Structures are given as structure tokens and as C-alpha cells.
Amino acid sequence: MILTERQLVRWGERIGGEVHPPFFLALRGPLGAGKSVLARAVARGAGVEGPLPSPTFNLVFRYQGATADVIHVDLYRIHDPRELKELGWEELCAGEDLLLVEWPERAGGQLPADRWEVELCAPEGASELREVMVLKVGSPPSLPSFPMALSPDLG
Ligand SMILES: Nc1ncnc2c1ncn2[C@@H]1O[C@H](COP(=O)(O)OP(=O)(O)O)[C@@H](O)[C@H]1O
Ligand SMILES: [Mg+2]
Known about the structure:
Helix content is 24%, strand content 26%. With 155 residues, the chain is of the alpha/beta class. The protein has a single domain, classed as Rossmann fold, CATH 3.40.50.
């Protein structure tokens, strides 16, 4: 599925509003793919208010949503399993929260058995569009499917 940023954000907001934590969403794709855009949209949809920085210096941001905490993690700068431990990774994964994790590949094999994965990438020559692929691993709670009216992106 190919989505504009607006469509991706709308989908993310629906995810945030509809999923039932504990919920783990792995966000894959290269730098600039839109992982943080999607994560922030999910947080908004879950009722998080106020500014939503990108976790660049802090690797973990925890927000209070309407019905659960939303935890946005960026593992980009993790290169060693020991750093993962310092981050409290196991506890995060065992929690009751809505977890949004960029660069999940940095966690080695340490990902929850039940999760959703979204992979984003920019199609050649289309800087404002992203190809979005969704993968279900194990038996996670259901994930809203793509926005209904995908055709005209009117707003
Ligand atoms: N269809 C799209 N979906 C998501 N982001 C898009 C899209 N088109 C353009 N962009 C831009 O791409 C950038 C994605 O940045 P970001 O979410 O920080 O990437 P990442 O976290 O994957 O490194 C943003 O500047 C955003 O405005
Ligand atoms: Mg990011």
C-alpha cells in the first residue's frame, strides 16, 4: 500500500485510538522513512497531548495516553545487548503499555513473540509517498487496517 504522509498519520491515529495494550509495534525502514511520523501519530491517537519530540538523545520517551502509557523507543544508537539491558528493555517488553519501537533490528532477537511490524520505504522518485508493509508476528491484538477512503487525499 502506498500512502501520503496525511494518510499515514490518519492510520497511525486510528491505531492509537483502537488498539488494546499491551501492544508492540516495530517500525522498520531507513532514516527518513517516516517511522517517527507514524509513532507520533499513534501516540496522538492514544490521547497523548503536548509536544512529541523524536527520541534522538533520549532513547525512550514515555507518555501518558488516555487508557495506557505510550512508550516510544528509538534503538538506532544501540549497538550492544548490554546497552539494551541498561535501557530496561526486558521490563518495557513485559509491561502493559503501547510500545512503538524504531530500529527493532538493534534488539537482536529480543522482540516480543506477539507483535506487529510495519516497514516503510520511499518508492523511487516519489518523495512524498511511502510504501507501507505490515507483518503480523505471533498472535498480537488486532491492528486497524488501512484508512478506508484512500483514494482522494483531500483532508
Ligand atoms: N508519505 C509520507 N509518510 C511519512 N513521512 C513522509 C511522507 N512523505 C514525506 N514524509 C517526510 O519524511 C520524513 C520522515 O521523517 P521521520 O518520521 O523522522 O523518519 P524516521 O523516523 O523513519 O527516520 C518527515 O520529514 C516527513 O515529513
Ligand atoms: Mg525516527
